[in-house]
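debug: dumping io for the single-chain case to check the tokenizer round-trip. Nothing else runs in this session.
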Amino acid sequence: MFEKLTDRLESAFKVLKGEGRITETNVSETMKEIRRALLDADVNYKIAKEFTDTVKTKALGQNVIKSVSPGQLLVKIMNEELTRLMGGQSVDINIKGNPAVILIAGLQGSGKTTFTGKLATRLKGQGKKVMLIAGDVYRPAAINQLQVLAEQIGVTVYTEEGNKNPVQIAEKGIKLAGTQGYDVVIVDTAGRLAVDEEMMNEIAAVHRSIKPGETLFVVDAMTGQDAVNTAKAFNDRLNFDGVVLTKLDGDARGGAALTISYTVGKPIKFVSTGEKMQALDVFYPDRMANRILGMGDVVSLVEKAQLQIDEVEAARINKKISKNQFDFDDFLSQIGQIKKMGNLKDLMGMIPGMGKALKDIDISDDAFKHVEAIIQSMTPAERANPNLINGSRRERLAKGSGTSVTQVNQLMKQFSDMRDMMKKMNQMGGMGKMPKMPNIPGMRR
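debug: decoded output
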């Protein structure tokens, strides 16, 4: 999402490259470029100017020590100010109550129902007993969509066929949840335009009636500055507690993420990417600032790994690696755990320096599809003992997986190299130089 902004900011910092000190002239030139970059990212002009004026004042007010270049100092100041602009620190949702009630509001098509499912998945993973309430009584198939998501993630959904009163539906659902021992109730509501007075009155009535402990405004990051204006209108009516940015993996310019918290005075609590129910992240302003400035986000990458990787499975595989017994079944298991972590390009972009390297590379969400097809075409004996796979077997695997013999040979070579690397690292006590990362099928320049 922020690739263009990151590139523009890097170009702006080059003005100070090689400069021995910060001066009014070189900082002013850099700030002009940064302001243009922010405007191109759909940041409001007044906010962009205020931001660059603040950075310029702070930069000119500091002396550059010999070990820090002017460019490095400016990046540090930019990081601090971007973090402040996006809210300063992460803010958790309030799930207190018996049951805790969370109201979801937003425009049509903003991704409210999908987010509702993702939030339920997250809370269920934390040990909460969750009920969803289908309060969208207008959009065709909205209730059915929520029911499908609820069945997929294993939670209850409350509906009332024929009832078109969302206030009554929410009240009855919450009452039932209280008697049946649910910890959290998430109320999905219909999308509405801020200019539709009747619909805005309706969501305000739902809010007054159920008195939610948490009200979240869901907004499509693709709508740019319009998202900020819409958030202001909804906040005037609901005084919501936080913002959820959806479709952050789309071709958006980023202005909403940068300024919505600053403009509305409410924190961004979650960011949502993709359709997978696990693709929901807590919003950390400092980590997002790091990513915008091309510094990666290793902390979030590690947290994703900790959430998705099975510790028992990891211990089992480590034991097999130590005995040099890592096979294709283990490889397939590892691929599955990596896929659960989310979009591959986003994950790799969290590694410092990788974002720029991946700028012109398209990594498909199906990047492992051919690898999985080849492995799944193997017999149990072949998976356990790759040395059995001779020329004729490779031809059979290619036909069975819909790939070519060349692709099968590539996989065999990469798997062999990986096993050799694991063996060497094991002999060295886990230390050693990592080999060059192999090509991933589905990665295109």
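debug: round-trip ok. The longest strand covers residues 100-106.
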